[in-house]
């Protein structure tokens, strides 16, 4: 009988320790008072378990101030492992390094030339990882996992590019193998919208919504769906590719091979070309800046893009019924010039007698969310015990 009680006590202690670890992994560094509030454990139990974790080297504590009072901040010790997130975009290379407490240890953006080639870009990415890890005083042996987010559909099941032709020259590149040869840790790839949605679920608006739709609108359109607190990938990992929903059956041929996809009307080249006669040569950033500054022509182009995107979002919402729609990407940086017509076009096509309208909000972490989400996802996928 005594051994049964001891075993039960051990199981309870392990369960409580798991509660603490999961809370800090999910929400980041917390004070002991906050840990007690979030786990439902008593303050004395939290104190005992934190002391045990610190002795084991799993947790570390630092002094902090909360509401004017001294408090003990608890975080996961960095030696447990770090996650590296890389974002290879059409014109951008970004890196984010986080630890298991979700603390961002480093973040950097680097421009890439239009039409950048895989060989030079991957060499630059390797160099960037080594430099960043060295700069934070860590070693590559501490890396628990690497996630590479790429601006193209990814076949999650087979960890390879899922739709050929969208990111020129990358179709036959084995991205996972390239990094796995240089680092002794698991390497994964995902698309940029999924990575951003993961960041939103952990550090952004999505924290409070188990069911939300994330939409990335800029040089093309992508999305990701969180259903019941988990990213929905579909059978091959290609769920959420709303940029390839047809909006014009007689429209331009898309890079995916179909005709009239949303991406054929909402992409940098198409948007700025409409203004070429009146405004000369513009970039997407120029267009967004001028629209925000009140340029009538630029505002019209951004507004028209919002209506196009909103129409497809509404169709997705009727099937998915999200509690929240989070908008990221370059176009949301135009503020209400983009967001208001987007909201109107979505609400106009949803059920008019719904009890309450869907919350539609621009992401406050959009500029960093891809690499951040990739880093957080890497740690989720890393084998335990590192």
From TrEMBL:
Domain of life: Bacteria
Similarity remark: Belongs to the ROK (NagC/XylR) family.
Protein name from the UniProt record: NagC family transcriptional regulator
């Amino acid at each position: 009988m005594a051994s049964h009680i001891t075993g039960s006590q051990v199981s309870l202690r392990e369960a409580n320790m798991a509660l603490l670890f999961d809370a800090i992994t999910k929400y980041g560094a917390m004070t002991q008072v906050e840990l007690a509030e979030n786990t439902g454990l008593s303050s004395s139990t939290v104190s005992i378990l934190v002391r045990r974790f610190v002795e084991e080297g799993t947790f570390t504590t630092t002094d902090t101030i909360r509401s004017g009072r001294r408090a003990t901040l608890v975080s996961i010790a960095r030696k447990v492992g770090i996650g590296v997130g890389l974002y290879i975009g059409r014109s951008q290379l970004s890196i984010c390094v986080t630890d298991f407490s979700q603390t961002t240890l480093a973040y950097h953006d680097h421009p890439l030339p239009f039409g950048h080639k895989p060989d030079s870009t991957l060499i630059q990415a390797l160099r960037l990882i080594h430099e960043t890890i060295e700069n934070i005083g860590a070693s590559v042996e501490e890396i628990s996992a690497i996630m590479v987010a790429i601006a193209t559909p990814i076949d999650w099941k087979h960890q390879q590019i899922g739709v050929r032709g969208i990111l020129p020259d990358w179709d036959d590149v084995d991205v996972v193998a390239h990094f796995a040869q240089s680092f002794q840790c698991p390497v994964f790839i995902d698309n940029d919208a999924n990575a951003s949605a993961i960041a939103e679920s952990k550090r952004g608006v999505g924290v409070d919504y188990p069911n939300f739709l994330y939409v990335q609108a800029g040089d093309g359109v992508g999305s990701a769906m969180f259903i019941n607190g988990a990213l929905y990938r579909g059978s091959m990992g290609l769920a959420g590719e709303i940029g390839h929903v047809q909006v014009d059956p007689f429209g331009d041929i898309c890079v995916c091979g179909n005709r009239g996809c949303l991406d054929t009307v909402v992409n940098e080249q198409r948007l700025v070309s409409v203004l070429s006669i009146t405004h000369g040569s513009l970039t997407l950033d120029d267009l967004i800046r001028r629209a925000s500054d009140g340029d009538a022509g630029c505002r019209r182009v951004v507004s028209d893009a919002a209506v196009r995107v909103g129409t497809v979002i509404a169709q997705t919402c009727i099937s998915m019924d999200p509690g929240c729609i989070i908008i990221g990407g370059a176009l949301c940086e135009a503020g209400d010039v983009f967001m208001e017509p987007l909201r109107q076009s979505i609400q106009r096509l949803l059920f008019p007698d719904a009890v309450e309208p869907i919350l539609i909000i621009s992401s406050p972490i959009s500029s960093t969310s891809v690499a951040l989400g990739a880093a957080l996802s890497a740690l989720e996928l890393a084998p335990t015990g590192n």
